[in-house]
Amino acid sequence: MIHTVTVNPALDLTYRVDEIVFDDTVRAQHVLRSAGGKGINVSRVSARLGHPTVAMGFVGGRAGEELQERLEAEQVRTWFSHVAGATRTNPIVQDDAGHQIRVSSPGAGVAAEDVDALVESLFDLRAPDVLALCGSLLPGMPSDFYTTVARRAAADGIRVAIDADGPQLASALEAGAYMIKPNRYELERLTNRQVGTREDAVAASRPLLRQGIEVVLTSLGPQGAVLVSGDCALHAYAPRVTVDSAVGAGDAMLAGALVAAVDGAPWETVLRLGVACGTATAMTPGTELCQDSDVEALLPRIVVETL
Description:
By secondary structure, the chain is α/β, with parallel strands linked by helices. Helix content is 37%, strand content 25%. Strands 5-4-1-8-9-10-11-12-13-14 form a 10-stranded mixed beta sheet, with helices on both faces. Strands 3-2-6-7 form a 4-stranded mixed beta sheet. Helix 1 (38-48) packs across helix 8 (249-262) and helix 9 packs across helix 10 (292-298). The chain is globular, with a radius of gyration of 18 Å.
């Protein structure tokens, strides 16, 4: 079982247009509506892979209700804390050439009592195999929220994965997270090292293992991904595909990796499934996520090398 925490989810609206034109009316061919947010996407992909999952975090307003309804329609169990502020709506405009304008709306602030209630609710259910903390915090939330939750999870014997940036990713080091999934830029900011190659990613990841992280999974975009644990360093090449929208590809990669890891697979399989899910997601339009048929077709085409 994988539980995900997304304190700042979104209802994503992707407008497909022929061409993005400024200062004029642009008519959408169609609009894609989907539940969004890093942890939300991890749960959605986990469910598509047939793995049980629970999506947690804050929701509010009609957008929050629709987000929850859409998740439940995708067989994602939800366990949200409801707040007065409305869940944000993110508009995305994409044209036929693949160009995008993505607007990340601010989330509504929450009170201290909302945060306390959320923390308690996260541990009301049966303990998961992994608790994934994903994305940014809302205004009014303490900067050490991830550290607080991760430490409590560790005390209960729950492994924690973190996919975030800045202070939230740094909190993984304080709490001794099981897995982190930075992209190359987030890894650079975390370690103050340049990450231009797969060898750079390995060199930047090694010190993090000595600080208590069990596995570092770094996405390198078109260069694939690197997984570093205490006993191996692996690089996976993604096959060349037609990319429609890379939105959510990193989240899908984390989902695939966690599903394989929870099932007890070796690290090579963890990395292979993660990259297959991320690559399949890049093939889909807007904020759509990978289809299991595409993942299955891509798996034998993923090349994994030992570094």
